[in-house]
Automatic annotation (TrEMBL):
It comes from the Bacteria. The keyword Signal applies. Keywords: Signal, Transport. Belongs to the bacterial solute-binding protein 1 family. The keyword Hydrolase does not apply. It comes from Actinoplanes cyaneus. This is Sugar ABC transporter substrate-binding protein.
Length: 427
């Protein structure tokens, strides 16, 4: 992965006021910082404790708002001018705030992961300080793949081949209560004890990776165009067939509305191959009672292509404490500021020079993270961006759920989903 070796030089500040941060009676300035992850908040508490030793005039108040409430509370607070001085955002939501003048543009940055910098660059300006990132690779159950004679590092897929190697491998890895495999006489798809793969409507970990690996696209400019791409439809059909036709993945009835279902099945030893990101490392490490490893993404018609996503910290344009907010942003964009995130094993940090601390944390626990690094450094598939892409995704999600349940054909479903998503993005 390429690096940017820059230092924070300035923030282009705009006028405004806010009640988010307060001046304390003892003369200190309180800067509020909001995120949605309780575990990473622990790392920030450690980071800000060090920051406050060198900046005794500033106190940072870390506020955790759970993901389930985050994107409901944030728009209301931004509109009311009561948003935190600094808050986490993702690519689906920052564009609207940037375009409407709610954020301070950052003029520009540090030793940061370039792909995350690119994600938060809009209109020629950087709008957020990269905090962490993730890519996608393939967790595997060593016992199950060994028993089936499957090499997870050498898997390839091709939807145009009747003898597609990945489908063949998944059949060997899938078994019903009597030990029969899909395609064998008597196999019972209603009594599957071990699944081959976690095919599901998980856009970041599954669907977009297959689309990219097949040479498809999802978005052009700020509009969804996935229904117009035959390669995209072919890839989605392939994933849906793994569930409903091949019976090598859990039912969409179980995974559509429970994003943790596949993770639970994997840690229970009931899924052999679990395609996901480093955000599940701790859950797998703590929950799996069997030997496991991490392999590269599947090699498809367009190669190994995965999604790289990142979280950034953005500053409210209405902060009443611009100088203090600037100092905090500088800190959380520095190696010292992000070291607790990496060394604690929470996530790949946005600052590239401290990424080895994250890798070392897991190496000491017998886990090699190289497949995630290779995925991020190879050909990647862009997560959707745009001022209203979050609303668009929310609008098309129910349609795609029907597709994965087999209630709606892929071609018709993608067209219906695209229309719904683009209509919602008109505002």
């Amino acid at each position: 992965m390429r690096r940017l070796f820059l230092t924070i030089t300035a923030l282009l500040l705009t006028a405004g006021c806010s009640i988010a941060g307060n001046d304390d009676a003892d003369g200190k300035t309180t800067v509020t910082f909001r995120l949605w992850d309780e575990q990473v908040a622990t790392a920030y508490e450690q980071s800000f404790a060090a920051f406050e030793k060198t900046h005794p005039e500033i106190t940072v108040d870390v506020q955790v708002v759970p993901w389930a409430d985050y994107w409901t509370k944030l728009p209301a607070d931004v509109a009311a001018g009561t948003a935190a001085d600094i808050f986490w955002t993702n690519t689906s939501n920052f564009g609207l705030y940037a375009d409407n003048g709610h954020l301070l543009p950052v003029d520009v940055s540090g030793d940061w992961t370039k792909s995350v910098v690119d994600l938060y660059t809009r209109g020629g300006k950087l709008w957020g300080v990269p905090q962490l990132w993730d890519s996608i690779a393939l967790y595997y159950n060593k016992d199950l793949v060994t028993k089936a004679g499957v090499d997870p590092a050498a898997l390839t897929w091709d939807p145009s081949r009747p003898d597609d190697p990945f489908r063949a491998a998944l059949r060997r890895l899938t078994a019903d209560g009597a030990g029969r495999h899909p395609g064998e006489a008597g196999f019972d798809p209603k009594d599957i004890t071990t699944y081959g793969f976690n095919a599901a409507l998980d856009q970041q970990a599954i669907m977009w990776d297959f689309v990219g690996s097949n040479g498809g696209t999802w978005q052009t400019g700020d509009a969804f165009t996935f229904a117009d791409q035959p390669k995209t439809a072919q890839a989605v059909q392939y994933v849906v067939d793994l569930i409903n036709k091949e019976h090598v993945a859990p039912s969409a009835a179980d995974t559509n509305t429970n994003s943790d279902k596949a993770l639970q099945l994997f840690t229970q030893g009931r899924i052999a191959l679990f395609q996901s990101g480093p955000y599940h490392l701790k859950a797998v490490h703590d929950g799996a009672g069997f030997p496991w490893g991490i392999a590269p993404l599947l090699d498809g018609p367009a190669g190994r292509v995965g999604v790289v996503h990142g979280v950034a910290a953005v500053a409210s344009a209405r902060t009443a404490h611009k100088e203090a907010t600037t100092e905090v942003l500088k800190w959380i964009g520095s190696a010292d500021g992000q070291r607790p995130i990496a060394a604690g094993g929470y996530a790949f940090p946005g600052v590239t020079s401290v990424q080895p601390a994250f890798v070392d944390h897991w190496r000491q626990r017998g886990v090699d993270l190289q497949p995630f690094l290779d995925s991020a450094g190879g050909t990647t598939f862009p997560a959707p961006v745009g001022p209203r892409v979050g609303s668009g995704g929310t609008a098309y999600a129910p349609v795609l759920q029907q597709v994965f349940l087999g209630q709606l054909g892929v071609v018709d479903g993608l067209r219906k989903a695209q229309n719904a998503g683009n209509e919602a993005m008109k505002g």
